[in-house]
Automatic annotation (TrEMBL):
Subcellular localization, as worded in the UniProt entry: Cell membrane
Signal peptide as annotated in the record: none
Protein's membrane topology: Multi-pass membrane protein
Protein name: MFS transporter
Pfam families: MFS_3 (PF05977)
Keyword tags: Cell membrane, Membrane, Transmembrane, Transmembrane helix, Transport
Amino acid sequence: MWDVLRVRGFRLLWGAGLASEIGSWMMIVAVPALVYDLTGSTTATAVAVLAETVPVLVLGPFAGVLADRWDHRTTMVVVDLVRAAAVLAILCVRDASTVWVVFVAMTAESTAGLLFAPAQAALVPRLVGRGPRLDSANAVSSVTGGVIRLVGGPLGGAAYALWGIEAVVLADAASYVVSAMLLVFLPRSRAVRGRATVRLLIDELVDGLRAVVRSRLLRGLAITSVVFFAANGAATTVLAPLVAERLDGGAGTLGLLMAALGIGYLLGGMLSAKVSAVGSLTIATCGFLLLALASHPIIGAVACAVIGVGGSILLVVLRTATQRRAPEGFVGRASASLATVQTAATVAGAALATTASLTGLLIAVVLGVALSTVVAAVAVPR
């Protein structure tokens, strides 16, 4: 799997993603903590989280269109520099009266970042081809992503507690600059010439959606994604009450479950080339069922690790299938469209889950993930 790092272009792209993701995961913990410390308001803290989610829902598909039109290397370099400038604005925040700067900065960072992922997705097959190395490239990215999930959040929380938000912001900004410096050495791609009018962007977005719909594989994975990510979104609301009511734990137990999830994500990346979409969802279903029956923190941690394995494999399958089956010039918008569908389903699942009891929610999550397995078996070709 790791032989793909011998490809210089992919090695640079992988290193850039590694650097920027570490900084981003540090901010995931530090920013909500900062907002809550300044305001004491859970509503304000939720707004800080939404500031990074809303742009994905509103602008995500159009970001894919632009990523397909522009030179991928230049796009990612500019995005990194914009994100670095955006997070540095948080250094101006001193009290509750200036906390709005955090919301603006997070929105700007998230909006710019929308262009990075589809450009990156389109660039990977150009660097390693669409053969076996593509599976290896995505597996390597998934494994390192699991490591970052494990260390990034705790590292950000520790840095915030020891040295304050300034240290975390400077580390995040520096990670974006390092990423941009690595990306400069990548080859350029041919940009689409011509003025990008609103009508043209809409037409190209529709073309990208048609490319997904016309491919039986991508269409089946898109439908499967809606079901799975809706159930997974509902599951995000279950961990805290599950820990409190079933596992008799607190923040430490919740941290244990999240660490186990990261370990599962790491292991899933290593297995991703050997397991299908149906297999990954079967694994996830078993994990959610075990979580629903858990009565001890250790059992809950094992369940989360199993969920992480299944979820990680599914993400690699989705990414690789899109890069391999989307037509040349459509990879960016196809990737962005699927990402938007996944985010919308996650938000919808989380919103619907607020009306259910803990037991009802656990049952719904297990049935939802099981249903996604059935959908994948029927709609996704082997």
